[in-house]
Amino acid sequence: MIFRFFIALCFVNISFCFSQTQDSIAVPNTVIKDTINTQNPTITKTKVEQGLVFKDSLIESNTENVKAIAAVTDSTTISNLKDDDYVLQFDKAWFEELYSNHLFDTIYKSVTDLDYQPVYYPELSTDTLKARLKALDAKTPFNVAYNPSLENVIKSYLKNRQNSIQKLLTLSAFYFPMFEAELDKHNIPLEIKYLAIVESALKPRARSRVGATGLWQFMFATGKEYGLDVSSYVDERSDPIKSTEAAAKYLSKLYKIFGDWDLALAAYNSGPGNVGKAIRRSGGYRNYWNIRHNLPRETAGYLPAFLANMYIFEYAEAHGFKKYKPELAYFETDTIRIKQMITLDQVSEATGTPIEELQFLNPSYKLDIIPFVKGEKYVLRLPRDVVGKFVNNEDRIYAFAKAEFDKREKPMPQLSNAKAKITYRVKSGDYLGKISRLYGVRVSNIKRWNGLRGNNLKIGQRLIIYPRTPNVNRSSSAKALVKVKPISGEVINYTVKNGDSLWSIAQKFSGVSVQNIKDWNGISGTNLKPGKTLKIAKG
């Protein structure tokens, strides 16, 4: 086992910390294109037109909606947050699961076991690769020189990881603009943005086996050193902007030490101490490729993985990948400074924004709770078209949240008698937000009823549900949500391919939205299986 800790260099008054990384290929299922598509425009539109609806008629609305929300509000309590042991267990479980159920192929495994054997991939000739790498080398401070090992890594990625690369390209459209803005502020090469792919596969809540967390995989001590707040409620290592700023500062100091960006990246991965030892053992060489055999095994594959991703992203379209516009771009969001403790669940109910979208935009809040602490500036990030609703009804929203928090010490009210309880079996494509909307209850309710301490669900898992309406029939509820709307005019049959999503398919047809596809085909979620035939109205 490789020794993972190192002592600080005597000539630098900084504590460096090992950053074990996540695989660049493991990609979350709930990427933005999947997460945001879960919103039901019809429901949102209704909520906007009717206004925010709370218990005790805090906001005017029609009687039926007031009663419906009141029923849920009466049944809602907040877990006892004063139980320190419980919170600690919750934190631990939370970090181990992410929005996706898949994060098994870690960077330690993939990079450590990086195979440099020749790969047959005739679509990319060696001469073409040499020319493209030379062009890349001319515009980046990294040493993008051709060598057979790098060629084999690139071809292996292109041949074996097509679907993962396409998903990463789609997700990068959201994250890369914010990365570039922060890197530019600190005069850091913009190509550093590709490091987040190798580190975390663009998962803000990614966590390695040794505790490195976030898009840039900061260890606890290093995160604290660079101003990232880590507490029971908040982990700013998962905050895209703050963690990127910290990574830029950290990399800037590493570059000042080594004077070479390749070596700075190696030090980011395994620490400056290991890089210094590798230089000494190689006889004083300072080129990464000359000292690579003296670096820890995972670091030896670190730069090749980084350069391979850089090449593939820069020449993505030449290799047949599509660069889709994200359904929600970063610049289409804004922040609101929180004035009182509030949960993402409460914000979701108030604004009609799906809980999954709020979790995606606010990944640093570990328990889906935004605390209010004097002296701290915690913010809520929302889509721009939702910010106005929140601000215009701020007092009412906070009053609603406070009323719920005031009841948190009381026993959980009985929603219905035992006979109204149902057992739901988790199916492929299910997630808590989808199930909560199916039965008109909250995600927090489902978690509490089933002792869940995270969002992770397993296919076949059984969940206890107390539907909002007693004796609700599961199958009838499901059918009510997936009624097929007739298509007028000519119909096109589209066969789902590997890597397709509702968003990417909608982009192929003029005037067709994600919701159109869902309505025409009776789809309630976002899960698509290759080979499925979808009906599309020809424009």
Description:
Helix content is 45%, strand content 6%. It is mostly helical and 539 residues long. The chain folds into 4 domains: 48-97 and 328-413, no CATH class; 107-319, Lysozyme (Orthogonal Bundle), CATH 1.10.530.10; 416-473, LysM domain (Membrane-bound Lytic Murein Transglycosylase D, Chain A, Roll), CATH 3.10.350.10; 482-537, LysM domain (Membrane-bound Lytic Murein Transglycosylase D, Chain A, Roll), CATH 3.10.350.10. The strands form 4 sheets. Strands 1-4 form a two-stranded antiparallel sheet. Strands 2-3 form a two-stranded antiparallel sheet. Helix 7 crosses helix 16 and helix 12 (261-270) crosses helix 13 (272-281). Mean pLDDT is 75; it is low at 1-108, 409-419 and 470-482.
The CATH level-2 architecture of the largest domain is identified as Orthogonal Bundle
User: What does the radius of gyration come to?
Assistant: 25 Å
- Give the mean pLDDT: 75
Question: Could you name the ranges where pLDDT drops below 50 across 5 or more consecutive residues?
Answer: 1-108, 409-419, 470-482
Report on the biggest sheet: 2 strands, antiparallel
| Fraction of residues in β-strands | 5-15%
The CATH class of the largest domain is identified as Mainly Alpha
Give the termini distance in whole angstroms: 60 Å
CATH topology name of the largest domain, in short, is Lysozyme
SS class:
mainly alpha
Please report the total strand number as a whole number.
8
Helix-residue proportion: 40-55%
Q: Count of helical segments?
A: 25
